[in-house]
TrEMBL record:
InterPro entries: Homeodomain-like_sf, HTH-type_TetR-like_transc_reg, HTH_TetR, Tet_transcr_reg_TetR-rel_C_sf, TetR_SbtR-like_C. Keywords: DNA-binding, Transcription, Transcription regulation. Residues 29-88 form the HTH tetR-type domain. The lineage of its organism: Bacteria, Bacillati, Actinomycetota, Actinomycetes, Streptosporangiales. Residues 1-29 are annotated as: Disordered. This is TetR/AcrR family transcriptional regulator. Residues 16-29 have a biased composition (Basic and acidic residues).
């Protein structure tokens, strides 16, 4: 399945720039997104406690650059999480505009959502910690992603492709439950199971 490339605006590394109304520099955005993509990739293979030097090597920068953008590991974890959520948010309308059918768009978006859930490897334990910085992440996740999933479902239902009584949060919970096995079994194919789930939604 092809990826939908999106640019996500997060903390720009220039304190006060957004508050002052100044636009973020394009190179600063690209550099930070490179760091976030590298961190996400390392988290998939090594978990959120992976050495910062591994993330720096993946991004092709020094560790000092990582710490300049993200002074603590919590800052980095939160930024990666939000970066991936926003990628899923922006992908929804893009997929509806480029896919052959709304159901195809829903299928492709579900694949991106599976990728997001799998790249949260190790994050669940961190979210259960007593670090107050993580408290708002679940609310952020729900508030940003449920409307996008609902838009895709409504488009597919309006096209007569799926049943009309499906709730977005219900579908996202179902996909999430199907991804649980990926944490402990490298041979577990969450994508295949989610594809079967979506096939079962088709209106016969």
């Amino acid at each position: 399945m092809s990826r939908v490339e999106v640019n996500v605006a997060v903390n720009d590394g220039e304190p006060g720039a957004e508050r002052a109304g100044r636009p973020r520099r394009a190179d600063a955005r690209r550099n930070e997104e490179t760091l976030l993509d590298a961190a996400a990739a390392v988290f998939v293979t090594s978990g959120v406690e992976a050495p910062i030097r591994d993330i720096a090597a993946k991004a092709g920068v020094g560790t000092a650059t990582i710490y300049r953008h993200f002074p603590t590991r919590a800052d980095l974890i939160i930024a990666v999480y939000r970066h991936q959520v926003e990628a899923c948010v922006e992908a929804g309308p893009a997929l509806l505009a480029t896919s052959a059918t709304p159901h195809a768009a829903l299928e492709r978006w579900a694949g991106l959502f599976v990728d997001f859930l799998v790249t949260k490897h190790g994050l669940a334990a961190v979210l259960r910690s007593d670090n107050g910085q993580f408290d708002a992440l679940h609310t952020y996740f729900v508030d940003r992603l449920v409307p996008v999933c609902a838009q895709l479902i409504q488009a597919a239902a309006a096209a007569g492709e799926i049943h009309t009584d499906l709730e977005a949060y219900e579908l996202m919970r179902g996909i999430g439950n199907l991804c649980i096995g990926a944490d402990s079994d490298p041979g577990y194919d969450a994508r295949r199971l989610v594809a079967l789930l979506l096939a079962g939604l088709r209106q016969l």
